[in-house]
Amino acid sequence: MYDFFEPPRAAPRPTVWEVGALCRAVADALQARFNPVTVRGEISGFSRAGSGHCYFSIKDAQGQIRCAMFRRAALQMDFTPRDGELVELRGKLGVYEQRGDLQLIVDSLQRAGQGAWFEQFLRLKAQLQAEGLFDAERKRRLPAMPRGIGLVTSPGAAALHDVVTALRRRVPHIPVVLAPALVQGAQAPQSLREALVQLYRMAEEPGAGPAIDVILLVRGGGSMEDLWAFNDEQLARLIVQSPVPLISGVGHETDFTIADFCADLRAPTPTAAAELVSLPRDSWLAELAQRAQRLQAAAQRHLDRHQQRLDHATQRLGRPSGQLARNQLLLARSAQRLRHAVQLRLQQQGHRLEQRGQQLPQGLLRALEGQQRRLERAALRLELLDPRHALQRGYALLTDAHGHAVTRVAQARPGDRLRASLSDGDIDLAVTQPRLL
Questions:
Q1: 176-180 and 149-153 as β-strands: parallel, antiparallel, unpaired?
Q2: What percent of the chain lies above the pLDDT cut of 90?
Q3: Residue 435's pLDDT is what?
Q4: Which of 69, 231, 273, 280 has a beta carbon 3.0–4.6 Å from 54's, enabling a disulfide?
Q5: Among the listed residues 267, 165, 290, the one whose alpha carbon sits nearest the alpha carbon of residue 218
């Protein structure tokens, strides 16, 4: 009888996956286990590609998932998503095999109410706007040629490199004073305020450093929470107290912060902020050369005019006989005009005298006839006043012994002698008894 020994079996070898195959297997598992899914959360890092596809993350306090929304689904949206908005989306979980990332392919997206970040942003914006911090009347124009530029940003940020590169290329002669500050995180608002205060002190006190005529507050792009330091209320109130114009260049062209509304001017990017205060030196040199050319041309024209006047004066001084001949000719012309004027005047006066001589007899005749008519009218009026006409109508003229006219009863007394003159003679009367009417 024989005992047979069976050797132990070797453990099975694990399956070796191809990377792509593993990603597809995970995607299949997600498809079978979860899809379709509806997710609620806040949008972060939203962007729209030129193809029309949208890319963003959906997150809450515990985690976040990358999302992709293709053009066909994006066209169905009735609003433009913004970072911080609270949304509900429906889609399918999958794996982006090229990177091995978990992503959610979004089929539909709708608002679920504004997220906490965005709501806080809108409340602060409305409050500061009501207080007048955004009023256009208080915003100042930028200096055309600043003596110095203040810069607030992070020393390690790409925005610093972009701004310095633009300024060095365009205005290498203008000094730039960097006030380093944190631009992200819980300590960033306080750091930004301290940096601004430092530049304000230099702008107000010329002896404290280079003269500063404008300040740039810049940071590169990011999500709403990345840029949240620039939505600080104390920072906003400090910005409007700037002693010099202040430009905000925070994020990309589509990003807006409270600092943008408070600044004197908003630039879409940090580089654009640098370009706003740095007209290229070549432009200034070209302008200076053009003005120098105009000044030189004006001076040359001035010299030419005076040289021409000098030439004319030299000509007159060198040939006085010519001037004398011109003066004699002028005098002869004046004498001829004078004789002609006197002769013309005498002729006019002679014509007038002749006309008056012809008009004099007729005038005298008309004057005599007029006087004759006036005399006849006066004689007629005098005749009408002759008292003898009244006597012919039966009236009498009484006179006393002295020849005075008696016109009242009181002038006659009994025994007085009166004379009554009638139309054909006089009658002597004696007064017996006067009677009043």
A1: parallel
A2: 25
A3: 75
A4: 69
A5: 267
